[in-house]
Amino acid sequence: MTLRKPIALAVSALALGAGLALAPATTASAAYQCDMVESANGTVYAGYYTGNTIQPSSTGVSDAGIEAQCILRYKGFNPGTIDGVFGSNSRAAALAFQKKMNRDHHAGLTEDGKVGKNTWPWLRNSSYY
């Protein structure tokens, strides 16, 4: 009976240690790869979302979020980790993009850091860098 408790503690410690060892790999795998493609008509895609209407989520992973983050990074606006969650870094990158498009091209975009139906076409257009 006295041997059971030390064995149970050792097994628990081993399991806990293994779980901690795996935690960084799980976090690192949350980053997505951006394989950018420019279509013949000058539209940029990363392969996660092809539309122009869905606003990326700030609370969960979305294909639109991954797509917007990839394009922002491709165009030189750093959204942070490409994780599909449109958090503060992504919003700051989108805001900087919107300001640049308004300043340089008179785009008339709302400068709110959100990628919606008005910002997507400007983001996708390969001629605006």
Automatic annotation (TrEMBL):
Gene3D superfamilies: PGBD-like superfamily/PGBD. It comes from the Bacteria. The keyword Protease does not apply. Residues 1-23 form the signal peptide. Pfam families: PG_binding_1. Keywords: Signal. Residues 67-121 form the Peptidoglycan binding-like domain. This is Peptidoglycan-binding protein. The lineage of its organism: Bacteria, Bacillati, Actinomycetota, Actinomycetes, Cryptosporangiales.
